[in-house]
Amino acid sequence: MARMSPPHAAVQAPENHDRIDSADGGLWKSILRILTLLARPELAKWRPVMVLAVIITLAASILEVISPLVMGHAINQAVPEGGAAANFATAALWLTYGLALRFAAAAMPQVRDWLFSPVSQDAQRVASVDAFGHSLALSLGFHQTRRTGALNRIIERGASAIDYLIRFLAFNIGPTLVRLVLASVALGIAYDIRLSLIAVATIALYVIATVIITEWRVRQRRKMNEADTHFRATSVDILTNFETVKSFAAETRETARFDNAMGEYNRHYVDTNRSMYVLNTVQALVMNLGLLAVMVLSAWNVIQGTMQIGDLTAVMLMLLSLYAPLNILGWAWREIKQGAVDLEKLHGLMGMTPEVQDKPGAKVLTRPEGRVKFENVAFSHEGRAVGVSGVSFEVAPGRKVAFVGTSGAGKSTLLKLLFRFYDVEAGSVQIDGQDVRDLTQESLRASLGLVPQDVVLFNDTLGANISYARPEATEAELREAARRAQLLPFIDSLPDGWKTRVGERGLKLSGGEKQRVGIARVILANPAILVLDEATSALDSATEAAVQEALEEASAGRTTLVVAHRLSTVISADEIIVLEAGRIVERGGHEALLAKGGKYADMWHRQAHRAEPAELLS
């Protein structure tokens, strides 16, 4: 007997369904993107702060090189050559100067960070808002194939990468290179050119090893990021659908799915960390070999009398001042490369083009009458053979038209084309004689009001959810909309009234209450065209009757398009259009379609037959 797949496996999306390709260009392209971001008008007020922060950083690097020389001179004053008398007063003075310089060099980066912190946060905000707004602007098809958790994670990591790249490029890489050059030159001029050569060779070997190993680490990081995105998205997916999980007693199964996703992430995380340990070990080996060579040469120079004890001390302090920035350089390079990977993904998202866009010079739809016309419309979803084909109809202002048919007949597809969530492949969709492709999407959708089968609410108050349609609405307008949606008595009966929170996706409300909130929201928006997409199909008969009354109130005086499964809810429609396999097969009024004895009549009799047992039991 063949082994059956786990129930979830049958519907689980492929692992790469959240994938967003990274933008091209690598590190240098990422640097250019950062510079472009910092040049944005929104960040212009921070430019003096940026310049000051860089100056402070460079000054600190210079002081880091000077202070060991001053300290060495102080020791030479305390321990002079040839048996000369020690000058402790002068030594103490030079030592004080050296310590003051070291303190200033240590304090300056703190001052810089204090100044730069709001700059970094503002840059992250600008980039995050851009990415978030761009995500919302992407077409419906994009969001239907990607999980919210994965998208959030890409934006979060990309914003954090901006902070890394700005800080490390401006405050680590540049100043560190300046410090390394100054220290190498100072060693050669003040003491021995061979010390400079050893320092330069050590630095070169260190940088080469760091770059080579970091390139390997970047590949590990990319794999870890993909696993992290999948893991976070899986977590959000499970928690968002916890009601379904509980209803199928699938807690153990979903916990195992979470465990698998986290296990995959952990494996890549361990690989990434181990590559870091390899890099740290190689860096430490190179640095300590260089340190040993400099110490041996300096000690030999002291023995030969070409250097003093203070000079040896200065060289050692100088090496330590080199050792620290080299460690920072290696770490900063790792972070920069990893940040570039994250930024590539963010810019990959930003580079995605909406499938549906406003035309240049698109018109604003103002004061629409509500005349809707579909003219020989054809459209098919990607990967599906059936869509809609050759669909033509016209709805006069103030009239009601219903669309019925079996599941997959194309009813909801017509509504999506009306909202221009997709563009037609042939024909045209018109409002008041204007092709919707010639209108701005904002003005088009402002003229349409949708009540879907499952109204999804924000985790906010009842008042906030209803006023979402028109945030500037007055309290009187809100109450009138709630009254017309038969929701006002319910709201007034609640202890917190309009301030009652509805929970995640409105889960604290019943199905009927959620639908009435959706109806109140549409009434408040006052659109010219009302669209009802199976707005009562998920409700019981008693609740459906109450909600149907609210819908009749909402549709009064405006063009209404209804998609319905229960034919009893569309009897009053001026015209009923029957769809099958994406084509119109019948159209007419309820009585005329029944008399015709075709597809509609067959659907009506089958539904009436199914309703009889329920009526007998009621």
List descriptors.
single chain; 618 residues; alpha/beta; ABC transporter transmembrane region fold; Rossmann fold; 3 domains; 4-stranded antiparallel β-sheet; 18 helices; disordered C terminus
Could you walk me through the main structural features you see in this protein, from its secondary elements to its overall organization?
It comes from Hyphomonas hirschiana VP5. Residues 372-606 form the ABC transporter domain. GO terms for molecular function: ABC-type transporter activity; ATP binding; ATP hydrolysis activity. Its main location: membrane. This protein has helices at 26-38, 47-78, 88-137, 140-144, 148-190, 193-240, 242-247, 251-304, 309-350, 411-418, 441-446, 462-466, 475-484, 488-493, 511-525, 541-555, 590-596, 599-617, and strands spanning 372-379, 388-395, 400-404, 426-431, 434-435, 448-451, 529-533, 559-563, 575-580, 583-588. It has 18 helices and ten strands. The radius of gyration is 35 Å and the shape is elongated. With 618 residues, it is of the alpha/beta class. The longest helix has 54 residues, at 251-304. The chain folds into three domains: 20-191 and 337-355, ABC transporter transmembrane region fold; 192-306; 372-610, P-loop containing nucleotide triphosphate hydrolases (Rossmann fold, 3-Layer(aba) Sandwich), CATH 3.40.50.300. 62% of the residues lie in helices and 9% in strands.
